[in-house]
């Protein structure tokens, strides 16, 4: 277990939230509503700690070559999810303001660390469901700006960790206080049929055991142990994108204390959790 | 928990078309029979579309990956000669988490920016769906025990694999289309079952035959799928383009030899092994779906080209059920 040490003055906390749009359902399952409430509470904590910008990695913006940093100043549009389009929560309007100064500096820091950082600025770029959802729940008033990096599924996790380290350096450099956000599921045994919200439960009991074990370790402040178990967790419970998004948070060097697990519940059979680390 | 029917392997369904005893004039003057005319393996790296510089795509290139693109050019001529009513495509980047979806939007149109390679593909698409066939495939697949959905929401962006494969097969976009989703995620999940793809292939064939369409079925997968995780400067700089490693290459060649020799039943057995050895994108099931729709035809596979794209193996292949009859 880590003993508490000082975090960066630029660090306002970190959260892990699910990326499934069910959290925005007009008629949510109790489990979905609990996760949404947990995410809103985590957002309040980040804002209460003085976060100015949400720094987001979402497993739903996955890439396979290099790393992309979103530098488009304003991302606005309507996202229709390619799986959930028939449900009320499958259509999401968004209007995101990128912290361009931070994002540009972040890209520079990533390059200084020897990695590639493509600056992405394209009209009609398809912002993913996870980013929109996280932004909506963590910052319902839309008062914060955002910085995003893609989740490279082929890169080693040490590279993903480097992205987290780089953004703290960038925030210090431009004098910004940031909340780090990992948008990721846990186990992913998705229920393979159309269900009613109240039917939702984690599909595989062994997967739920895995999720709870992982969350227990995070609550004990033992992120290192979780990352050591990461590959086994991925094999045995199909952890979302091999839980790379947690490596991003850990790479920041700011997860120095115990995490607060605000919620854990089923999301169409997968495991979803809201976890907060204080700044 | 699965109520999916098991389909027998390549033992009953296919025959060389236009050459039966009842078609004495088969050679060179085939009757225009309904049903599946041919199947193709049509890989979709956006690099290939980018390299073509079509007017619909915003980025400009200096070319690259010519051998694969020439194979597609040849294939287009052969598709023209087939005179099909519809191209039915299964591609792995319309990822649906629950069920097999069929695009039933009559006239999908929009601007598709590719989130993985936005510098290569920003494409203005517009095409026509054979809605009657799309719905029939969804209904048949449902009746055959699969979870399905008819997608009628024209706000869903068409993915880059669907666009790239369809463009390369028919850049004029003048043949109606049915587009199927991939009910799995080759990136997120460690394994995916190919069993449902056999069933979906059978369902597709039944629907095509019940409506009397002449159809080309296209499965869009790369082969070996390990690749670089860092970019080179100019994407089309071919000095960087080669197989990811010898192992991947050897396995792709073993795979393609079976296709060339027409040993489709053996190929079926090799598909899972090839996936294990090379992370082949056939894990997404498009190839299995296509060959199942064809009935696993023996003796007619052709490899038109093989080439690598950022290190992945890609082959353009054809199974022409009317070969020799046109
Ligand atoms: Fe692909």
Automatic annotation (TrEMBL), chain A:
InterPro entries: Xdiol_dOase_suB. One of its GO terms (molecular function) is oxidoreductase activity, acting on single donors with incorporation of molecular oxygen, incorporation of two atoms of oxygen. Keywords: Dioxygenase, Oxidoreductase. The keyword Secreted does not apply. Coiled coil: none annotated. It comes from the Bacteria. Residues 26-251 form the Extradiol ring-cleavage dioxygenase class III enzyme subunit B domain. This is 2-aminophenol/2-amino-5-chlorophenol 1,6-dioxygenase alpha subunit. It comes from Nocardioides soli.
From TrEMBL, chain B:
Residues 1-33 are annotated as: Disordered. Keywords: Dioxygenase, Oxidoreductase. Residues 41-312 form the Extradiol ring-cleavage dioxygenase class III enzyme subunit B domain. Its EC number is 1.13.11.74, 1.13.11.76. GO terms for molecular function: ferrous iron binding; oxidoreductase activity, acting on single donors with incorporation of molecular oxygen, incorporation of two atoms of oxygen. The keyword Manganese does not apply. This is 2-aminophenol/2-amino-5-chlorophenol 1,6-dioxygenase beta subunit.
